[in-house]
Write a structure and sequence with these properties.
Radius of gyration of chain A: 22 Å
Oligomer: heterodimer
CATH superfamily of the domain at 10-21 and 125-289 in chain A: NADH-ubiquinone oxidoreductase 51kDa subunit
Distance between the termini of chain B: 57 Å
Largest sheet of chain A: 6 strands, mixed
CATH topology of the domain at 10-21 and 125-289 in chain A: Rossmann fold
Number of helices of chain B: 15
Strand content of chain B: under 5%
Number of strands of chain A: 18
Structural class of chain A: alpha/beta
Number of domains of chain B: 1
Number of helices of chain A: 13
Shape of chain A: globular
Helix content of chain A: 25-40%
CATH topology of chain B: Ammonium transporter fold
Structural class of chain B: mainly alpha
CATH architecture of the domain at 10-21 and 125-289 in chain A: 3-Layer(aba) Sandwich
CATH architecture of chain B: Orthogonal Bundle
Chain lengths: 451, 322
């Protein structure tokens, strides 16, 4: 950690089991976030979060301005979608998202002006309800990749007592550096948000967690943690060993509190809320300005990208446009991923819009990151050793192929978070994450058959 | 837009280095010191026996896969490893056709009949050795004296485990492997070097070798009433080093989990010691490992860790019966 003063910095209460050593490739760590020029067109899918899709509230021909609601849902688990450019709604179409879901989408032709919607004013927050309402109105979803609506996460059921807020700055996926930049560039937003959430939701402890491979971010986070407004406040920084998947939600809870989230439960069930650092910082900016989530920072990197860098892009910008902005391809791309290389999704082509939860676009040159030929399992046990959740992927694969529901349930296949540590380690090149997903499906299907 | 089609595959999109072939190659590398030692001690015929077992292993693996219409697996080098380890378990004077039979039993009967790599329920090389042992007991227990090849005379000897105390080779000879025995088992130094190499390369975990050898040491310490020299002789003789580092650690036939490995290692050590102390056979490493191999599914069943955050067995049963 070099010159960073580690006084008062927490160490993990309990170490994460297993995990894998991935090469960090944080090539863009020093790349300040550059704003992308206004795109000609954006496509805003109505499904950019876990939960119910939104329904367009505009029609073709409507004039819209930046921050205006263009899609909303009356369902609880959802988040509104806002126009990310000013211009004219040119089409209501459908797009196939990287995860295969077909979603309705609003296409807006930009007028290049980026005029802010008149209705935008800083929200008036007087208490918990108004705060949660504001978070919902901001359209915020987990910016770390999961896309879970933040207002849902922050609405703690009355029967649960949350005592710890964990601010996740681990960023354990290789290549991605946007959370790191958030710490460097928007530290005051992070600090201010932490105190707002803490006060309004009545959370006693705050733990800011970062891996030890980011000393610069650490210095700044340390300042935040040291900047306690009140002596009673407990805002502490926690240093984690650089290891994948430290930043996974359950792992964060384990490191910070030593508690284990039971299968099928949420961190709130053991008194914790885990928030990505960029999501935290966004809340402060929203409360100050009232400008909803219409743009986000992304890392553009990989061996096929001419100029890897961090960019801030309007949500819905075409991925191809962003790659062009980064100098295009310097080599024939063989694989393009949204998100990190461990959990990201490979996409069929670049004609896809950026979603709220996309934190990176990685393009790898042809021949790089080849898919391994699958061989027979040699029972070496590397998958089981790598699993941070104590699962036995090789057994799960076997039970899944045998459709052995009883055993699948017993070995806890649904606990799997698909972090990819097992498949990363498998010398036989087995697509174990795919097998875990299949196993979950087998379990669902066989159960519904028997029901 | 890229012209060519992009690869779409399930995450993760990066992969760690070792492949099955790489692992097997590392095991072969780890066996080389013992092979060199064996050639020095028992002469060039060692290479001939190895060539036969390796050659036959690879050939019959190729033929079996072809006959069974399965994809070919000789490229993963596991048949080479089996062949080498089998040869290490044979006396240097073994007739070549017997060595070939051992290889056929190991690869065809034990490995391929059960589905090939990773599916065999006992260690193929050990099973091959045991079949030869019960079929050709004389040939399998005719031990050539060290360096006999230099004089050209066929001098035979006993293995230290079957010797009277007065005939025992010195401690240094034992450690360097200058003693009678199977051709690859005698040089403890070379086997330890190979074993440590595999541990450093993270191919094997130290748990099984340590618990195996440790258990034998403890039991022999008690049996020898604290005689340390007796303990060291026990550890350096027979096939203990070869078995503990290279055969008990076989992935397919040893438990995956930490606790399972401990139980397995202790079990191997216990059975080895019991056979050596009370059995009619002078040596028990092979039988100990093969018996523990058979118990692996049960050991694994008992030691599978609970998924992260699971409540204890009792509570989950209550939950299930609600």
């Amino acid at each position: 950690m070099g010159s960073v003063n580690l006084d008062g910095v927490l160490k993990a209460v309990k170490q994460v089991r297993g995990g894998v050593a991935v090469s960090h490739n944080k090539n863009t760590a020093d790349s300040e976030v550059v704003r992308l020029p206004v795109p000609d067109k954006v496509v805003l899918p109505m499904q950019q979060h876990i939960g119910a899709p939104c329904i367009p509230t505009v029609k073709v021909g409507d004039k819209v301005k930046v921050g205006q609601v263009i899609g909303d849902s009356d369902k609880f688990v959802s988040a509104p979608i806002h126009a990310s450019v000013s211009g004219t709604v040119s089409a209501i179409t459908e797009v196939k998202l990287p995860n295969g879901v077909i979603s309705q989408a609003v296409e807006i032709e930009s007028d290049g002006e980026m005029c802010l919607y008149e209705g935008i004013t800083p929200p008036v927050v007087t208490g918990k309800e108004t705060f949660l309402r504001a978070v919902r109105d901001s359209g915020l979803v987990g910016l770390g990749g999961a896309g879970f609506p933040t207002h849902v996460k922050l609405r703690i059921p009355p029967d649960k007592k949350v005592d710890t807020l964990i601010v996740n700055a681990a960023e354990c996926e290789p290549y991605i550096t946007v959370d790191y930049r958030e710490c460097l560039d928007n530290s005051w937003d992070i600090l201010s948000s932490i105190f707002t959430i803490k006060e309004i939701l009545g959370i006693k402890n705050v733990v800011i967690a970062a891996e030890d491979n980011k000393p610069e971010a650490f210095k700044i986070l340390k300042n935040i943690a040291d900047h306690k407004l009140d002596k009673d406040d407990e805002v502490r920084l926690m240093v984690l060993k650089s290891k994948y998947p430290q930043g996974a939600e359950k792992m964060m809870v384990l490191s910070a509190t030593g508690r284990k989230v039971p299968p099928g439960k949420l961190p709130a069930d053991v008194g914790c809320i885990v928030m990505n650092v960029a999501s935290v910082a966004f809340i402060a900016r929203y409360l100050k300005t009232g400008k909803p989530l219409v743009s986000r920072s992304m890392t553009i990197d990989g061996s096929a990208i001419a100029k890897p860098q961090n960019v801030r892009v309007p949500i819905g910008t075409n991925i191809g446009d962003i790659i062009d902005f980064c100098g295009g391809f310097k080599a024939e791309p063989g694989k393009i991923i949204t998100g990190g290389p461990m959990m990201g999704l490979s996409i069929i082509d670049t004609n896809l819009p950026v979603l709220k939860q996309n934190n990176a676009i990685l393009a790898f040159a042809e021949g790089d990151q080849k898919v391994m030929k699958e061989r027979d399992c040699i029972r070496c046990g590397r998958c089981a050793a790598a699993c941070p959740l104590s699962l036995m992927p090789t057994l799960i694969e076997r039970y899944s192929k045998a459709k052995d529901v009883e055993r699948l349930e017993k070995v806890g296949v649904n606990v799997c978070m698909e972090c990819g540590s097992c498949a990363f380690s498998c010398p036989a090149g087995k697509p174990l994450v795919q097998y875990m997903r299949l196993a979950k499906q087998v379990l669902r299907e066989e159960k519904s058959k028997n029901a | 837009m890229p012209d060519k089609k992009l690869t779409v595959s399930a995450s993760p999109h990066v992969h760690s280095v070792p492949t099955v072939t790489g692992i097997m190659l590392n095991v072969i590398i780890a066996l080389i010191p013992a092979l060199i030692a064996s050639v020095l001690i028992f002469g060039p015929r060692v290479l001939l026996v190895c060539a036969v077992t390796v050659g036959v292993s690879v050939l019959v693996e190729y033929i079996s896969r072809l006959v069974m219409k399965r994809h070919n697996t000789i490229g993963d080098l596991s048949a080479v490893v089996t062949g080498l380890i089998l040869a290490f378990n044979l006396p240097v004077s073994i007739p070549l056709w017997m060595a070939a039979i051992g290889a056929v039993v190991a690869i065809v009967v034990v490995k391929q009949f059960f589905g090939g790599i990773g599916q065999n329920f006992v260690n193929p090389a050990i099973a091959g050795r045991i079949i030869l042992m019960v079929s050709f007991p004389t040939a399998m227990t005719t031990w050539t004296a060290p360096f006999a090849y230099k004089t050209g005379e066929a001098v035979t000897t006993a293995t230290p485990l079957a010797m009277q105390e007065s005939e025992l080779p010195g401690m240094l000879e034992m450690f360097l492997g200058v003693r009678g025995g199977s051709m690859g088992e005698t040089c403890a130094l070379a086997l330890i070097v190979g074993g440590v190499y595999l541990m450093i390369r993270k191919i094997i975990s130290p748990i099984i070798p340590l618990t195996f050898i440790g258990t034998v040491a403890v039991i022999m310490l008690i049996a020898g009433k604290g005689d340390l020299q007796f303990v060291v002789y026990q550890l350096l003789s027979g096939g203990l080093m070869l078995g503990a580092f290279f055969m008990a650690t076989d992935y397919a036939t040893s438990p995956i989990n930490f606790k399972g490995k401990i139980i397995f290692g202790i079990g191997c050590g216990l059975i080895t010691s019991l056979i050596r102390l009370f059995g009619s056979l002078p040596e028990g490493v092979s039988f100990a490992i093969i018996l523990m191999n058979i118990l692996v599914p049960h050991i694994e069943h008992l030691t599978t860790p609970k998924p992260f955050g699971s409540v204890k067995e009792k509570k989950s049963k209550e939950g299930a019966s609600k």
